[in-house]
Amino acid sequence: MSVTIASLQRQSVLDALDNRVLLCHALGLNRIALITQSERVLTDEEAQRYHALVQRRVAGEPIAYIVGRREFFGLPFEVNNAVLIPRPDTELLVELAMDRLPAKGRVLDMGTGSGAIAVSLAHTRKDAEVTALDVSQDALAVARRNAAANNVRVTFLQSDWYAALADTAPFDVIASNPPYIANGDRHLSEGDLRYEPVGALTDHADGLSALRIIISGAPRHLKPQGWLLMEHGYDQAEAVRALLTEADYAEVQSWRDLAGIERVSGGRLKA
Questions:
Q1: Which segments constitute the Release factor glutamine methyltransferase N-terminal domain (predicted)?
Q2: Is the model's pTM score more than 0.70?
């Protein structure tokens, strides 16, 4: 029995958007071609390839890992299970960092993962000097490919937080989306998070330990009046503001994402 693109769209067990993404990936078509070729009959090889992808999605694997890419800040990013999947919420962190970065300024992205933050900053602010670090060599390999694919220049360092920065000049802005999910949180065993690198999700403690390290170490690597900006969990803003205040940062505040959740907190190093 012949199978057409249209029949696979009608009969799919998946969400319509997921199904369209997998069909495009399996057949090597864009969305417009999927429409214009809707009555095309698939070859056996194409049908098998599509059904294999569907089974991976039905099992729970994230779409981004299945197709190997995700868009972030209007740019394409390669992703695999060595890095977190970039999420729209994190675009707020990029916007805040960009707004606080002076002309020809220096910015550090800590725990870069796929490089989404660093590459987006380098692409938008071509005058800036962008450095990004991660403890994972596998993550850095992905980040370097993303920088090359998006034709931007970023200095990448393998580093356990600030360890590799001893001889580095101070930065105008430090931005980070660190592991902030508390150990044992039920979300770690649900949805896409089951497939993402656990070390990039949780600090294996109370969810604040990485944020404490970043806050305490930043003054040695920030210029006077430089900004520290950090993404955190939906219920952590008050705690992060308290940590920043205790560490004597100025202009401590939190910013809300598109859903109205306090998603990023930060402060300014006193002169």
A1: 15-68
A2: yes
